[in-house]
From TrEMBL:
Species of the source: Deinococcus humi
Enzyme class: lyase
GO terms for biological process, alphabetical: fructose 1,6-bisphosphate metabolic process; glycolytic process
Binding positions (dihydroxyacetone phosphate): G179, G209, S210, S211, N251, V252, D253, T254
Listed NCBIfam families: cbbA (TIGR00167), fruc_bis_ald (TIGR01859)
Residues at which Zn(2+) 1 binds: H81, H178, H208
Protein name as it appears in the record: Fructose-bisphosphate aldolase class II
Active site, per annotation: D80
Positions contributing to Zn(2+) 2 binding: D102, E132
UniProt keyword terms in alphabetical order: Lyase, Metal-binding, Zinc
UniProt entry tagged with the keyword Disulfide bond: no
Length: 305
């Protein structure tokens, strides 16, 4: 069933588990996400970036909505990193049930102002809103606390931001970063900060940049002819702990990009004569499904729907 972000994330925050919010860009990715959620009785969020909207548009949004309507588990269609009021309203017009306004690059007052406008419009239409406070980016273990404070989310500011905007859920900067290169070895996650922010606020918290960049997938990527540098993601134990202490929405894009490319590369490498797209993209879908299943297990959302 197609539901709002709140419908999925409020129970997750209360039940101390996380829900994956996976980026989609085509039919196979969407099927891997929603069919795996259905099979595992897990709630799930499917998100499209502005780039995904440019690429797949209403066609792709309709595929997501159709699969969501036919699923018996809760599915939300969410705008990832909406860059403006216009972008958020456009997504709502396209049938999204949840939107992110990312005005985190503005100063505090500017972020509040932009976010508030979107909250007012979206709430009038029953749509939930995610916003972001702080600057995402990896933090090195040796960085002193003062320097961390310059870009990680400040707990007192988070309380004021939520009060002043009415945002439904809040993305916080706690050490994660986008992409396949999140730091050398195991990226540092500021668990004390998550727990402090969660203790001072009541709404679901969001972790962007939460791909695990599994080492077996990286090895298969290389074995099938792919080239990639020092790839590293968020450790399963770090995500597990974060979801038990307030993180309810967990954003994953990179892991599906890697998994689908591994599937395609392996088919093409093993069977050079193959040119049936169903064999090629079907294999990509299978590898993505395995990665999604693992993630839902880590987050604790399996069996929650
Ligand atoms: O946070 C960004 C997501 O990974 C989406 O990336 O804008 O290339 O679709 P994209
Ligand atoms: P990853 O790059 O870790 O998959 O993060 C995706 C994300 O945060 C999308 O908003
Ligand atoms: Na988002
Ligand atoms: Zn993000």
């Amino acid at each position: 069933m197609l539901v709002t972000g709140n419908d999925i994330l409020i129970p997750a925050r209360a039940g101390k588990y996380g829900v994956g919010s996976f980026n989609t860009n085509n039919m196979e990715i969407t099927q891997a996400i929603i069919h795996t959620a259905e099979r595992l009785r897990s709630p799930v969020m499917v998100q499209m970036s502005e780039g995904a909207i440019k690429y797949g548009g209403q066609d792709l949004a309709n595929i997501v909505k159709d699969l969501a309507h036919r699923a018996t588990v809760p599915v939300a269609l969410h705008l990832d990193h909406g860059s403006s009021y216009e972008s958020a309203l456009n997504a709502i017009r396209m049938g999204f049930t949840s939107v992110m306004i990312d005005a985190s690059h503005h100063d505090f007052a500017g972020n509040v102002k932009e976010t508030r406008r979107v909250v007012e419009a979206a709430h009038a239409m029953g749509i939930s809103v995610e916003s972001e406070l702080g600057r995402l980016g990896g933090i090195e273990e040796h960085i002193v606390v003062d320097e961390k404070d310059a870009f990680l989310t400040d707990p007192e500011e988070a309380v004021q931001f939520i009060e002043q905007t009415g945002t439904d859920f809040l993305a916080i900067a706690i050490g994660t970063s986008h992409g396949a290169f999140k730091g050398k070895g195991r990226p540092y996650i500021d668990h004390a900060r998550i727990e402090k922010i969660a203790g001072m606020t009541g709404i679901p918290l969001v972790a962007h940049g939460s791909s695990g960049v599994p080492q077996d997938i990286i090895e298969r990527f290389r074995a099938a002819g792919g080239e990639i540098g020092d790839a590293a993601g968020i450790a399963d134990e770090d995500l597990q702990r974060a979801t038990q202490f307030g993180i309810a929405k967990v954003n994953v894009d990179t892991d599906l990009r890697l998994a689908s490319t591994v599937g395609i590369r392996e088919v093409l490498q093993a069977t050079p004569k193959e040119f049936d797209p169903r064999k090629i993209f079907g294999r990509a879908r299978d590898v993505m499904s395995q990665v999604i299943e693992h993630k839902m297990g880590v987050l604790g959302s399996v069996g929650k729907a």
